[in-house]
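hey
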């Protein structure tokens, strides 16, 4: 017991030291312990769940070098940069791929053989090279990690034939424990991964695919470009990605957004590497709000505050859709996932996949049908997605998708269900959804005739409805678990025990009519309200402009005046007196007096001109009264007591102290913390960071870390930011 406790303490120490976290997320701790025991491990964890840490921490915790197989050079570089940022020794992580010179390759190999490198990233193609196999035979390998493991399966959305050869290569180099990780895998893909890697004995760790903070919506593709522009303009300052199917559309869309005053850039494989990197950095650094991209963009992008993902074109599979939408709201905040759909998209994709070999074409068509099913379904979007990944969602209404917020009319589906189940039974459960629907509508195709299915009792039994209607019913009965797909046989429909029970004793069942999306040109436009934010978006934009002009006049960054969340509250509650303004979050008496009057004048004029009725009992969040801790902090700082002594006196850690000081300073109270900052940080670093904040558009610490580099800690930058805002803004 004592040993386990010691191991637990060490793991938490490593977590804090190398990654800066106090606690593990989801099942990370169990996964790491399992791998450290030498067990083969399979991890299915959604985007943003912290998969990388599941192999990075055990690599650091034990002897030897972990070999990580990763599909993209950009992804490897991103991971290596992050690991080096956490470590004093840059040799802790390396990648070995085609982007390196011979001298660089020799340096990497030397560091690995000398035991300096804990993690070595390789592409599967690099692993297959004879020289690398011979090199790896000399390395003390701790374990193998297969990242983006869905690439192994032909049923996965990023199938890479090279991934199929990973296991033979491992056998040649030398067996060690294997951990396979992915964010998107259906039960079929999971089975393929385990079987191909020959780790059927692996301990499987799955976390829920459900992302409750993501809102899912599908809209008819009529006037889509204009709707997208309107949506972005009604959500100012928010980051987002727009996915298009072709490079041409990416360029067109980016140009249209820029012409409409939206900061946007294109990203696709046709751009040269330098341009792609420059555009990606501009998005990460918030120099632009929107990235318009093909699927080439997004993998490995660690930007937690992406607020919307828009699919101008539907993707080719639900795995792609799930992974792409998963890039929204990784910080737990809002994430709007909007897809535009019409059947023309499907025809485009079908043409695109026509050139594939027969077996691949069959799979691609099956995956495309699942995407159509999602788009046209009237069932809860969350339920459809989770069901696709083999997870049950018990709630009838998720409350955060278009189908749940605007439910379609139900109908009594007992007879409809009976007709469908009887048809599946009549063909001995040996045919797929399309074939069943053709029988029910009475379509005597050559295939139907070849099986004599035009002679069945079920033939034409549902001819008063369309083929689309029956495909929709099939989708609903799959979710209700009355039928299932045999994925080993390309999706043949079979009755479940519940379906057989229904046939014997039919009971009342409620079904929904699926969407019938009208066809239309993107350039046609129907007016609709977009973005039901509580804040008045027009006033919010005016307040931001006012803040910008005041900041320019005073030669200060805008965030020093008021933060965005303060402006949002002003645009929600319309304060027109100084007392009301003082109660807005993050304002306080000091800031209200110093900067408030122009904002009050603007809001008052706006309210009068637009005849906005402010409710008499208008609720405004009250600023919390100064706590005894805040009073103690202000008094201690006045007396220049060291921060270490303050923490000891109040038994708070350094981060908690910074949280309290930020609350005080951001509300407008001036604190003279120069003595403490100079005691803890070198003068040159203070000066450099101070200059950065003077020019910065935002007070984001993550942006500051990216700009200023690994010489700074998060705590140091928070301290300097406090000094900066207190001295210049309060």
């Amino acid at each position: 017991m004592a040993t386990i406790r010691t191991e637990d303490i060490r793991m938490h120490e490593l977590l804090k030291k190398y990654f800066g976290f106090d606690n593990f997320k989801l099942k990370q701790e169990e996964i790491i312990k399992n791998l450290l025991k030498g067990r083969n491990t399979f991890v299915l964890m959604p985007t943003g769940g912290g998969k990388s840490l599941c192999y990075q921490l055990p690599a650091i915790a034990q002897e030897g070098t972990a070999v990580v197989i990763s599909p993209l050079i950009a992804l490897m570089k991103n991971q290596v940069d992050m690991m080096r940022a956490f470590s004093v020794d840059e040799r802790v992580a390396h990648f070995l791929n085609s982007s390196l010179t011979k001298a660089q390759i020799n340096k990497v190999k030397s560091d690995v053989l000398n035991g300096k490198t804990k993690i070595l990233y390789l592409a599967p193609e690099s692993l297959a090279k004879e020289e690398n196999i011979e090199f790896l035979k000399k390395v003390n390998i701790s374990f193998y990690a297969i990242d983006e493991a869905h690439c192994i399966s032909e049923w996965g959305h990023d199938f890479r034939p090279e991934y199929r050869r990973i296991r033979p290569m491992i056998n040649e180099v030398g067996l060690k424990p294997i951990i396979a990780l992915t964010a998107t895998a259906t039960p079929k893909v999971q089975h393929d991964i385990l079987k191909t890697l020959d780790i059927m004995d692996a301990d499987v760790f799955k976390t829920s695919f459900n992302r409750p903070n993501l809102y899912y919506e599908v809209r008819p593709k009529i006037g889509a470009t204009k709707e997208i522009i309107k949506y972005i303009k009604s959500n100012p300052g928010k980051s987002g990605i727009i996915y298009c199917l072709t490079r041409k559309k990416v360029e067109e869309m980016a140009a249209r957004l820029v012409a409409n005053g939206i900061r946007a850039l294109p990203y696709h494989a046709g751009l040269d590497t330098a341009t792609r990197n420059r555009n990606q950095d501009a998005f990460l650094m918030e120099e632009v709000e929107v990235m318009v991209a093909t699927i080439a963009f997004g993998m490995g992008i660690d930007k937690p505050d992406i607020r919307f993902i828009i699919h101008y074109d539907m993707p080719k599979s639900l795995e792609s859709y799930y992974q792409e939408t998963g890039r929204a709201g990784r910080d737990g905040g809002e994430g709007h996932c909007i897809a535009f759909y019409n059947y023309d998209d499907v025809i485009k994709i079908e043409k695109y996949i026509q050139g594939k070999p027969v077996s691949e074409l069959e799979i691609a068509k099956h995956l495309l049908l699942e995407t159509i099913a999602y788009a046209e379904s009237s069932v809860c979007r969350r339920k459809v997605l989770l069901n696709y990944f083999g997870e049950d969602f018990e709630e009838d209404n998720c409350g955060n998708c278009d189908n749940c917020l605007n439910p379609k009319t139900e109908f009594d589906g007992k007879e409809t269900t009976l007709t469908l189940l009887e048809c599946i039974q009549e063909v001995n459960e040996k045919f797929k959804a399309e074939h069943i629907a053709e029988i029910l509508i009475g379509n005597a195709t050559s295939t139907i005739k070849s099986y004599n299915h035009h002679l069945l009792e079920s033939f034409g039994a549902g001819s008063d409805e369309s083929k689309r209607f029956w495909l929709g019913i099939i989708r609903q009965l799959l979710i209700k678990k009355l039928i299932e797909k045999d994925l080993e046989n390309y999706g043949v429909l079979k009755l479940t025990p519940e379906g057989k029970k229904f046939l014997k004793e039919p009971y009342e069942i409620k079904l929904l009519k699926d969407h019938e999306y009208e066809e239309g040109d993107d350039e046609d436009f129907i007016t609709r309200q977009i973005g039901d934010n509580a804040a008045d978006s027009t006033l919010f934009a005016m307040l931001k402009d006012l803040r910008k002009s005041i900041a320019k006049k005073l030669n200060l960054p805008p965030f020093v005046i008021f933060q965005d969340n303060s402006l949002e509250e002003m645009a929600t509650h319309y304060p027109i007196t100084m007392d009301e303004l003082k109660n807005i979050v993050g304002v306080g008496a000091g800031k209200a007096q110093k900067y408030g009057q122009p904002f009050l004048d603007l809001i008052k004029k706006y309210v009068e001109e637009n005849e906005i009725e402010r409710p008499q009992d208008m609720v405004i969040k009250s600023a919390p009264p100064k706590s005894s801790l805040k009073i103690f902090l202000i008094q201690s700082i006045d007396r220049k007591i060291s921060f270490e002594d303050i923490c000891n006196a109040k038994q708070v850690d350094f981060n908690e102290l910074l949280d309290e000081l930020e609350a005080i300073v951001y509300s407008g109270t001036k604190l003279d913390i120069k003595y403490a900052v100079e005691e803890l940080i070198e003068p040159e670093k203070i000066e450099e960071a101070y200059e950065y904040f003077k020019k910065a558009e935002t007070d984001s610490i993550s942006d500051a870390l990216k700009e200023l580099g690994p010489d700074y800690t998060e705590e140091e930058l928070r301290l300097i930011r406090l000094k900066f805002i207190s001295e210049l803004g309060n």
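The domain at 537-609 is CATH 1.10.150.80 (DNA polymerase; domain 1). The longest strand covers residues 214-220.
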